[in-house]
Specification:
Structural class: alpha/beta
CATH superfamily of the largest domain: Spore Coat Polysaccharide Biosynthesis Protein SpsA, Chain A
Helix content: 25-40%
CATH class of the largest domain: Alpha Beta
Number of helices: 9
Order of helices and strands: EHEHEHEHEEEHHHEHHE
Radius of gyration: 18 Å
Distance between the termini: 27 Å
C-alpha cells in the first residue's frame, strides 16, 4: 500500500458568475463525497479547492465565503481558496487564474452546477494513473431526467456551426445524421471512447504535465486551442 506521500494530489478549480448558491452547495457537497471516497480508497492524499469568483462587484464574495466556510473545516480538502475582485474575465482566464495559483499532479476543471457520483474522482484518477498516454478524462454526463448528454464533439465544419447556431429545430431534424456524427452519437454509449477531439468543459480531469504544456486555456477561443495542442502533441482524451 502506498503511503500518503507517494499518492498523487489533486487540485480543483471552479469558476462562478452569479451562481445559484443552493446548486453550488449541492455541487460542492457531491465533490466532497467523491473526495472522501477517493481518499479512503487510497488513490489520492491531498485535495485543494480553488473557487474563482467572476461575478460583478464585491457582493458575491461574502456569499461565496459563506459557502466555502462549510468545507474549510472539513478533512476532505487540504486547502480551500477563494479568488475574487477581478471581475468577469471569462471561463478560460478564470481557470487559468486558479491554475496559476495552485495546480497539483492532477487538476479538475469543474462547473458550479455539476453533481458527481461518489466514484467519479476515484475512477478518473485511477484511469489516468493506469494510462500515462492519456492527458484528460471526462465522464458520461446526464441531465436531471437521467438522459445522456452528448457533450463531446468532433471538430465542426462551418455548416455544422451554422446548423447548430442559427437553424430552428425543425430544420435541424433534416440534418439529424450529420449533427449526430458531430455529437459523436455513433460511438458514445456505456463503453469508453478514446481520441475525443473536443471534450465537455463541465468536468475535465487533466494531467498537470499535459495541461501546462498546452499552455492552459485560450483567453480568446474558450478551450479549442488547448484541445488542438493536446492532440497535436500526442496526448489522448478519454
Amino acid at each position: 500500500m502506498k503511503s500518503c506521500r507517494r499518492l498523487p494530489k489533486l487540485s480543483i478549480s471552479v469558476v462562478t458568475y452569479e451562481p445559484d448558491i443552493e446548486i453550488l452547495k449541492h455541487s460542492l457537497e457531491s465533490l466532497a463525497k467523491s473526495a472522501v471516497y477517493a481518499k479512503s480508497n487510497k488513490i489520492i492524499c491531498r485535495l485543494v479547492l480553488i473557487l474563482i469568483d467572476n461575478g460583478p462587484g464585491r457582493s458575491w464574495k461574502k456569499s461565496l465565503e459563506r459557502v466555502l466556510s462549510i468545507f474549510s473545516g472539513q478533512t476532505e480538502f487540504s486547502k480551500v481558496v477563494l479568488l475574487s475582485g477581478h471581475g468577469n474575465i471569462g471561463y478560460g482566464r478564470g481557470h487559468n487564474l486558479g491554475v496559476n495559483r495552485h495546480i497539483e499532479d492532477f487538476h479538475l476543471v469543474l462547473n458550479p452546477d455539476v453533481i458527481m457520483e461518489k466514484e467519479a474522482l476515484y475512477e478518473g484518477i485511477r484511469f489516468l494513473c493506469r494510462y500515462p498516454q492519456i492527458g484528460m478524462v471526462v465522464p458520461s454526463v446526464f441531465d436531471t431526467a437521467e438522459n445522456m448528454q452528448y457533450l463531446c464533439k468532433r471538430y465542426p465544419t462551418v455548416l455544422d456551426l451554422a446548423l447548430r447556431g442559427f437553424c430552428p429545430p425543425r430544420l435541424q431534424n433534416l440534418f439529424y445524421e450529420r449533427l449526430s456524427r458531430h455529437e459523436m452519437r455513433d460511438v458514445i454509449n456505456n463503453k469508453p471512447v478514446f481520441d475525443v477531439e473536443i471534450a465537455s468543459g463541465c468536468f475535465m480531469l487533466v494531467r498537470r504535465s499535459s495541461f501546462l504544456k498546452a499552455g492552459g486555456f485560450s483567453d480568446k477561443y474558450f478551450m479549442l486551442s488547448a484541445f488542438k495542442f493536446f492532440n497535436q502533441h500526442g496526448w489522448k482524451f478519454f
